[in-house]
Amino acid sequence: MYDTFDEENYEPVERLNKSQQKREIKALHELAVKLSKLDIQPLERMQLPPELFKALVDVQGMKHGAEKRQFKFIVKLLRQSDTESLVATIAGLEEKKTEQDKNFHRIERWRDRLMEDLPNAITDFMAMYPHADAGQIRQLVRNAASELAASKTPKSHRALFRLLRESITPE
User: Fold this and answer.
1) What is the pTM of this model?
2) Cα–Cα nearest to 53, from 80, 74, 69
3) Whether the Cβ atoms of residue 36 and residue 60 lie closer than 8 Å to each other
4) Are the beta carbons of 132 and 81 closer than 8 angstroms?
5) How wide is the angle at C-alpha 22 spanned by C-alphas 18 and 26, nearest 5°?
6) Is 42 among the domain residues?
7) Using alpha carbons only, what angle is made at residue 125 by residues 132 and 165, rounded to the nearest 5 degrees?
8) Tell me, what CATH number does 156's domain have?
9) Does 163 lie in the same domain as 104?
10) pLDDT tens profile 105-135
11) Which of 11, 12, 16, 134 is 20 to 30 Å from 100 by CA-CA measure?
């Protein structure tokens, strides 16, 4: 019998150990879950393969058992594609969402502070945001306080929030 093994052209195949494979599959599963929670518009902008896009859209309306099988399928599709760009895109979206949340909470804190301590708070606010309309802010704070005291719909409270958002949010 002839030996067909060619030592000169032999290149060993490097395989990951089982623990490393499990870690990679877990990371892909977490990526799949994050992708499935996105709306359709961001998914369309990512230019995903059509089969992966359809699988991600389909999983959004599934129950537990079917969802679990669908995520296994999505992980299989992710293993066949380049996920580095997807991870970077998800990180960018999460960073943008975090910044929006911080800005929202900053506006809420200013609104609450203005409602509690108008003279000092309005001075501090105008020092930080000189382009804001102090007279309109004072009027909305007074109206919001009277609505709150009379248990009315907080229209002025909402209007104050919108005005503060326009003043604080950089364009």
Assistant:
1) 0.63
2) 74
3) yes
4) no
5) 170
6) yes
7) 55
8) 1.10.60.30
9) yes
10) 999 999 999 888 877 888 888 888 888 888 8
11) 134
